[in-house]
């Protein structure tokens, strides 16, 4: 019984890793004079653990916008964000999901122009657009 508890505890403490495979194109390898193997090459990379209840740390040298985006993203993690549509209206200080830019946070809404903070930076989007 003690061995089972000990082995379960040690299994949790081990780092998880992701195995990626890479293959070499036969012709490119032949030109370089390398041997071709039929087995793919395996490369292991450690997977970072995400702590619940805290914002993930921003990478060193990250901009203030990126740091703010990371903290807002973790704050609104469980809430539903509406899909962005040009014809809809959005309130300031609310999240939204853009089809190309991903998760964003509406900072201001002035004259149907949204200033939205995305991971890639601040973008201006149109809202309340009416087609003729």
Describe the structure.
The protein is elongated, with a radius of gyration of 23 Å. Residues 5-9 and 47-51 have low confidence and may be disordered. It is built from three helices and six strands, in the order αβαβαββββ. The protein has one domain. It has helices at residues 2-13, 26-31, 64-75, and strands at 17-22, 41-46, 94-98, 102-110, 113-118, 121-126. It is 23% helix and 29% strand. Strands 3-4-5-6 form a four-stranded antiparallel beta sheet. With 132 residues, it is of the alpha+beta class.
Give the N-terminus to C-terminus distance in angstroms. Answer: 74 Å
Task: Look at the structure and give the mean pLDDT.
Answer: 75
Please summarize the sheet with the most strands: 4 strands, antiparallel
Bulk shape: elongated
Helicity level: 10-25%
User: Radius of gyration, rounded?
Assistant: 23 Å
- Write down the secondary-structure element order: HEHEHEEEE
Classification by helices and strands: alpha+beta
Unreliable residue stretches: 5-9, 47-51
Number of strands: 6
How much beta, percentage-wise? 25-35%
Structurally, how many domains make up the residues? 1
Helix segment tally:
3
Strand order across the largest sheet: 3-4-5-6
Question: What features would you highlight for this structure?
Answer:
132 residues, alpha+beta, four-stranded antiparallel β-sheet, two-stranded antiparallel sheet, 3 helices, 6 strands, 29% strand, elongated
Describe what is shown at a glance.
By secondary structure, the protein is of the alpha+beta class. The protein is 23% helix and 29% strand.
